[in-house]
């Protein structure tokens, strides 16, 4: 991507008032992009943390502003909450001498497939993929989100590459249930990648409990629960199980954020002069 | 070229500016040293350097508990942070008090638009749509508790409950934008999501007990 020294980038995350790690990947990706010096200014903004979506534009000095949602899929937040809170009128908003360019969420980018494959290979080094069942785990039941649709799309994309013996969707709260992983998986090795933007109670505890590799802490899960990712493989139900951290913690997300900016420019080049 | 914000902040520092929220800024040879304002004269503190260290210092309180509201009066003590230049200083302050420098400059320039609580609640959708039902009396009580400076939030409130209907449940100084020359005020131009979430609790509890 060409450098944009006169533009600002705002990476929008959901954030949390209870999970200290929710905003971490968004801050990490912003710090990495700032380090590369691609943009004149780089900021984060959050729905549930600070700076909020209502505050962040006061931090920005550039008149050319890109907004990239650090969300796994399009849905309620990318279509309703973020545009409303930032007072956006569409992909391009002109206001007070500023141009705000609203990009696609990171999870929509075609490179997600590559990132999932990379994470799966990293978590199970030396394990032959032709003898491995790979699960992409989503939440399920998200009423207004399309994360399940995005997860299914990624499973199809990965399966089409023919690297893994089988590639499967599973969910926490709807069929196919991740709790029944051993019934769904036919291979001796099983790799599990949570399709979430950050680590938190779901990846630290809920999914591990459903997999059978942890017990419920009664809400005591904390940053120390990263331990769950450090004991692979788990020998369980006659298989070798490898459990990865949420895909959104992958450092290459910083590249995908920049590629969503480039993709925006490619689509809107005719209507916006930078 | 120095940005408007960096320039305005440098001028504030040159005019004797030293305090933001619970942070004390000390200009030193080779940069700046930040500390908790109650730790300025302490020497038995842990030394950190670089703006990124501010992220963790701001993220957890004294007991290691997550601080979702960075302007809550529970910044941990027992540290000092060395920052090499004005750029690092600004990045660190953006971690300690996100957006507060920018909001301050907007206010200085007369460009800060305040939003009444009613307008903030009126645009909520989804699980927060119910917050529109909060009564004025419930809102006063909620703000008087949730936003209070001692134990709640250090920001000065600039918004009313509705036009012509100010918040009356907190002392007058909570609504003043003026600050001593050495202090940069933390300004709240619109109710935060934490207060909106609290409003939802208030409405839900009232409905449950009705």
How would you sum up this structure, described in words?
The complex is a heterodimer of chains A (274) and B (210). Chain A has 274 residues and is α/β, with parallel strands linked by helices. In chain A, 30% of the residues lie in helices and 22% in strands. Chain A is built from 7 helices and 10 strands. In chain A, the strands form 2 sheets. Chain A has a 5-stranded mixed beta sheet with strand order 2-1-3-5-4. In chain A, helix 3 (112-123) packs across helix 4 (147-160). Chain B is an alpha/beta fold. Chain B has helices spanning 4-14, 52-59, 86-96, 100-108, 117-122, 136-146, 193-209, and strands at 19-20, 23-28, 31-36, 46-49, 79-83, 156-157, 183-184, 187-188. Chain B has 7 helices and 8 strands. In chain B, strand 4 (46-49), helix 2 (52-59) and strand 5 form a beta-alpha-beta unit. In chain B, 35% of the residues lie in helices and 14% in strands. The A-B interface holds A 15-20, 27, 31, 43, 47-52, 54-56, 58-61, 76, 80-81, 84, 144 and B 3-5, 52, 55, 59-60, 66, 68-71, 94, 98-99, 101-103, 105-106, 112, 115, 123, 125-126, 189-190, 192-194, 197. Chain A: Keywords: Lyase, Metal-binding. Chain A: Pfam families: CbiX.
Low-confidence stretches of chain A: none
Arithmetic mean of pLDDT of chain B:
96
Q: Largest sheet of chain A, order of strands side by side? A: 2-1-3-5-4
**Alpha-beta content class of chain A:** alpha/beta
Spatial strand sequence of the major β-sheet of chain B:
4-5-3-2-1-7
CATH overall fold name of the largest domain in chain B: Gyrase A, domain 2
Biggest protein-protein interface? A-B, 27 and 31 residues
Order of helices and strands of chain B: HEEEEHEHHHHEEEH
The helix content of chain A is: 25-40%
Number of helices of chain A: 7
Q: Which CATH top level class of the largest domain in chain B fits?
A: Alpha Beta
Domain DR2241 stabilising (chain B): 6-105
Domain DR2241 4Fe-4S iron-sulfur cluster binding (chain B): 109-201
Protein name (chain A): Cobalamin (Vitamin B12) biosynthesis CbiX protein
GO molecular function, one term (chain A): metal ion binding
């Amino acid at each position: 991507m060409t450098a944009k020294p006169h533009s600002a980038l705002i990476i929008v995350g959901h954030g949390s008032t209870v999970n200290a790690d929710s905003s971490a990947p968004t801050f990490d990706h912003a710090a990495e992009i700032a380090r590369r010096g691609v943009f004149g200014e780089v900021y984060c903004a959050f729905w549930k943390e600070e700076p909020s979506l209502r505050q962040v534009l006061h931090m920005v000095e550039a008149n050319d502003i890109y907004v990239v949602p650090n969300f796994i899929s399009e849905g309620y937040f990318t279509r309703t909450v973020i545009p409303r809170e930032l007072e956006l009128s569409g992909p391009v908003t002109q206001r007070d001498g500023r141009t705000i360019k609203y990009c696609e969420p990171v999870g929509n980018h075609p490179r997600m497939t590559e990132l999932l494959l990379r994470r799966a290979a990293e978590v199970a080094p030396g394990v032959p993929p032709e003898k491995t069942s790979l699960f992409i785990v989503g939440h399920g039941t998200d009423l207004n989100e399309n994360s399940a649709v995005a997860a299914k799309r990624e499973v199809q994309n990965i399966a089409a590459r023919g690297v893994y013996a089988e590639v499967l969707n599973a969910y926490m709260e709807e069929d196919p249930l991740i709790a029944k992983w051993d019934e769904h998986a036919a291979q001796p090795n099983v790799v599990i990648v949570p399709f979430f933007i950050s680590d938190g109670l779901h990846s630290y505890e809920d999914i591990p409990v459903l997999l059978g590799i942890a017990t419920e802490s009664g809400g005591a899960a904390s940053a120390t629960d990263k331990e769950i990712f450090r004991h692979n493989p788990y020998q369980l139900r006659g298989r070798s199980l490898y459990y990865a951290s949420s895909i959104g913690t992958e450092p290459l997300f910083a590249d995908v954020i920049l590629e969503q900016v480039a993709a925006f420019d490619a689509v809107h080049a005719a209507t916006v002069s930078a | 070229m120095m940005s408007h914000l960096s320039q305005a902040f440098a001028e504030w520092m040159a005019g004797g500016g030293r305090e933001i929220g619970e942070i004390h800024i000390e200009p030193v040879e080779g940069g700046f040293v930040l500390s908790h304002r109650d730790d300025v004269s302490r020497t038995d503190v842990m030394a950190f350097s670089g703006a990124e260290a501010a992220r963790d210092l701001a993220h957890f309180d004294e007991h290691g508990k997550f601080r979702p509201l960075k302007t809550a009066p529970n910044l941990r003590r027992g540290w000092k942070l060395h920052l090499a230049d004005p750029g690092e200083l600004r990045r660190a302050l953006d971690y300690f008090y996100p957006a507060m420098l920018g909001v301050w400059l907007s206010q200085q320039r007369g460009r800060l638009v305040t939003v009444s609580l009613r307008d903030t609640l009126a645009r909520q959708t989804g699980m927060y749509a119910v917050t529109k039902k909060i009564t004025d009396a419930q809102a006063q009580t909620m703000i008087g508790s949730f936003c209070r400076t001692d134990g709640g939030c250090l920001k000065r409130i600039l918004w009313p409950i509705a036009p012509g209907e100010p918040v009356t449940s907190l002392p007058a100084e909570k609504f003043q934008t003026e600050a001593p020359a050495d202090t940069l005020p933390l300004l709240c131009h619109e109710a935060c999501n934490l207060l909106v979430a609290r409003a939802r609790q208030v409405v839900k509890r009232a409905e449950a007990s009705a």
